[in-house]
Amino acid sequence: MQRSVKMMLATGAALALTTLGVTPASAGEGPAPKPGPWTTISETTVFPKGTACKAKVVAKEKFTFRETQLKDGKVLVEYKDSSWSKFTNPKKHKSYTIGSGGDLLIKPNKDGSTLSIKGQGENYGQGLGVYGIVYSKGPISFKVVNADDPAKTRIVDLDLNRAKKVVQICYKIGTKPVWGQNILPEQSS
Asked: pLDDT by residue for the chain (189 residues), tens digit each?
């Protein structure tokens, strides 16, 4: 779902902007879409108590991804299998590490405020519309509404029925899940 809350919010905002204008890749006939550069990000996100789990959670992540703007307006986001996320409950000193490889196919609506997303591989989700921090492996689908407003971005219609594995990370690190809140970059540290 969201390998990184900050990355997902940034991608949603970028998609909202790119779908307002017609990019060469989405304008009828032309050259085949070219993948963007591979980008590696290492970050730490702090989920304060009550925003994902009942306890405070610290997520350390390293992920490498690239985006390709497809001809039909969709965006393919690919993640290298070397990507990972480690979630820690500092009060109980319990951690859980997940891989984050695979891809996401993102289809924005006309104004970019709603994104229909299909994922494959290893993913995790957190934020408005998600109970706790959910890890999945295998095919998933969901929608992101209010993608153009990071404070109101919400995940809806989350379908994990075809996923091969689903794990509630809050339980794995010794706490309980709560209905999520969005953590904006300035709130994380």
From this structure: 555 444 554 454 444 333 333 333 344 556 788 999 999 999 999 999 999 999 999 999 999 999 999 988 899 999 998 999 999 999 999 999 999 888 999 999 988 899 999 999 999 999 999 999 999 999 999 999 999 898 899 999 999 999 999 999 999 999 999 999 998 876 665
pTM given for the model: 0.84
Tell me how far apart the alpha carbons of residues 99 and 121 are, in angstroms, rounded to a whole number.
9
Distances from the Cα of 163 to the Cαs of 25, 96, 181, in angstroms?
31, 19, 24
Question: Where are the domains positioned within the chain?
Answer: 5-188
DSSP 21-33: S--GGGSSS-SPP
- State the Cα–Cα distance between residues 134 and 167, nearest whole angstrom: 6
CA distances from 5 to 20, 72, 93, 151 (A): 23, 26, 23, 12
